Amino acid sequence: MKIFCVGRNYADHAKELGNAVPEEPVIFMKPKTALLQSQTPFYYPEFSNELHYEVELVLRISKNGKYVEENQADKYYDALSVGIDFTARDIQAELKKKGLPWEKAKAWDNSAVLGVEWVPITEELVANPIQFSLRNNGQVVQQGDSRDMIFSFNKIVSHISQYFSLNIGDLVYTGTPAGVGECVVGDILEGYLEEQKMFEVEIKHDDCKEHE
Ligand code: MG
Fold first, then answer.
1. Residues of 11-34 as b/e, b for ≥16 C-beta within 10 angstroms?
2. What counts of helices (H) and strands (E) characterise the chain?
3. What class, spelled out in words, does domain 3-211 have in CATH?
4. How much distance in Å is there from the Cα of 36 to the middle of ligand 1?
5. Is residue 173 within 8 Å of 83, Cβ to Cβ?
6. How far is 152 from 49, CA to CA, in rounded Å?
7. What does the DSSP assignment read for 26-46?
8. Taking the chain (212 residues) in consecutive chunks of 10 residues, what is each chunk's mean pLDDT?
9. Distance 107 CA to ligand 1 centre (A)
10. What is the pLDDT of residues 60-83, one digit of tens each?
11. Any idea where the domains of the chain sit in the sequence?
12. N or C: which terminus of the chain has fewer CB atoms within 10 Å of its end residue's CB?
C-alpha cells in the first residue's frame, strides 16, 4: 500500500505559505507506517515544535493501473474520505530552505490520519461541490470545497500513474485548503465530510518517551 499526497492543490493555501501556484501536481509520498491506525493514540512528535494540521479529501484506489488517461481515471478510485496530512512545519521550513526532500517533515510514523468511514464515489457525488472541514476543540479551523482544487481527482490520479503504478488500496491525499495552523498537546481534531464526522484525534503528550 502506498500513500500519495498532493501539495499546493488549493491556490489560497499555496499563497498562505508563500508558494507559487504549481503548473502540474506536486506529488510526495508517505510510507505505510505513516498511517495512523484507528484506536492508536496520536502523540506529538518529539522532533518538532511546530506541528500543523492539514485536512484533505482522500481517495481510495480501487484498480491496478499505469499510464492512466485523465478521462479514464475515475475508474481507478471508488471511495472518498477525509484525513490529515500532519506536517512538522518547522522541519519542513528548514528542509525547504536547503532544497532538501520533505520526508522528515511529512512522512513520519502516524503522520497520516484517515477517516474511519469511506463514502462511495458516485457520478452524483463528484458532479457536485464536496465540502469538508476540520474542527479544533469544536471550532472550525479549515473549510474546503472540491471546486477550489487546482487539479481535479482525475488529473491527480492520471498524473501519479505516469510515474508510479496504482495498486488497489493505495491512498491519495488530494491537498489542503487554506487555514492550516498549529496544534498543541490536548487539542482534539475532528474531520468532517459534509456533515458526516469522519475522525477524531486527540493530540497526546508521550510521557513514556521521556523515561526511555
Ligand atoms: Mg498536505
1. eebbeebeeeeeeebbebbbeeeb
2. 6, 15
3. alpha beta
4. 15
5. yes
6. 33
7. EEEEE-GGGB--TTSPEE--T
8. 96 85 94 92 96 98 98 98 98 96 97 97 92 98 96 97 98 96 96 97 79 47
9. 11
10. 999 999 999 999 999 999 999 999
11. 3-211
12. C
Q: How far apart are the CA of 176 and the centre of ligand 1, in A?
A: 5
At 156, list the grid cell: 491527480
- With cell 502540474, the residue in question is 24
The residue among 132, 141, 150 whose CA lies nearest residue 192 is 132
Please tell me the predicted confidence (pLDDT) of residue 210. Answer: 52
| CA–centroid distance, residue 31 to ligand 1 (Å) | 15
211 Cα–ligand 1 center, Å: 32
